C-alpha cells in the first residue's frame, strides 16, 4: 500500500507539556489476553515519556466500564482518561461541559488532516471542539474459523449465512460446535447486527439506522433478519449463556468449535495463541454476498480537571495515542486498523490485510448503528434481541412489532 512509517522517534513525535509529574488513572475494558497486551503498549510507552504515570483501572465488559466512568465523573471523582466507543455514548458529557477540549493539540498536530475516515473523528467533535481521541478502527463483520474443523467436517468455509446454515448440521454431525457463542447482551446484539447487514445491504442499513425508517423496521427483509438470527440458536452449545467473547474465541482456537462471529479484535487472541492467519484460522468478512465493514472503534475521553499537571498529562497522552509509532505498534497488537494511513504495516498478517483492502474500498465501509441512535434506543434494541434469542417461544411477528415500535420512537 506504499505506507511509510514516520522516521521521527516517538519522543520527538509527541507534544511537550508540563514537566510536573501526575498520576493519570485510565479506565478501560481491555481484559482479555490479546487486549491486555495491547493496552500494555499504551501504558508502557506513556510511562517512558517522562515522570507522569499511567494508573491502570481495568473493568470487565464495556457497559460496566462506561457506567463506572459516568458515575465517577458525575460524582466528582473523575479518572484522568476513560475508554468509550466512537459513538454517541459520551455526548451528554460534552454537552454538560465535563470533558477536556483537546483542540490545542489536535490543531497543532493536524488531526483532521490524517485521521481517516472522517466518521471516526466526527463523534469527538462538537461546537468547534474535539473531545476524544480515536485510537483505532474496529470492524464488526467477521466470521472467524478453525480451518482444521472445517476440513474434518468435510465442508467449505461459508461466505453467506445461507451457506453457514447449510454447513452447520454437517459440522455438528462431525462432533463439533458449529458456532461458538457468548450469551451476553452485547454479544447477542453484535451477532444480530452482523446477520442484519449480511442478509440485507448498505441501503437497507442506512434506511433503518440513519433514517430510522419504520417501513424498513417492519419489512420482509427485517423478518428474514430475525428468522436467520433465530436459526443460529440450534448450532450453539449449552454453555453459551454468560460466556465471555474471548472464551468463545478460544473454542475456535482450540478446535472445539468451527466458527465465531466477532469483531476484528478477535485477531489479537489468535495472534496471542501463536496461530497463523489463513493457515490455522480463517477470517471471512461478512458473512455476506457483498462484504461490508462497519467502521467503529475505541476512543478515549479526558474529564476536565482543575489540576494543571494532570491536564498536561492528559494532553500528552492524547498526543501519544495518535503518534505514527504508537498507531502501528498498538493496532498490530490489538487486531484493529490504525486511524492514520502513514504507519508501517509491513508486519500486517493476512487477515489485517483483508481489513485494509476493504478500508480502501469506499463502497465497503458503513457507519455503525450506535453512531445514529441514542444509548437509550440502543439499550432497548439490545434488550429485545436478548429476549428474542433467549426465549425461543417469542415469535418473529412479536419481535418485529416491538422492533418497529422502538424505531418509530428512536432519536
TrEMBL record:
<dbReference type="InterPro" id="IPR050490">
    <property type="entry name" value="Bact_solute-bd_prot1"/>
</dbReference>
<comment type="function">
    <text>Part of a binding-protein-dependent transport system for a sugar.</text>
</comment>
<keyword id="KW-0732">Signal</keyword>
<keyword id="KW-0813">Transport</keyword>
<comment type="similarity">
    <text>Belongs to the bacterial solute-binding protein 1 family.</text>
</comment>
<dbReference type="Pfam" id="PF01547">
    <property type="entry name" value="SBP_bac_1"/>
</dbReference>
<dbReference type="GO" id="GO:0042597">
    <property type="term" value="C:periplasmic space"/>
</dbReference>
<protein>
    <recommendedName>
        <fullName>Probable sugar-binding periplasmic protein</fullName>
    </recommendedName>
</protein>
<dbReference type="InterPro" id="IPR006059">
    <property type="entry name" value="SBP"/>
</dbReference>
<feature type="signal peptide">
    <location>
        <begin position="1"/>
        <end position="21"/>
    </location>
</feature>
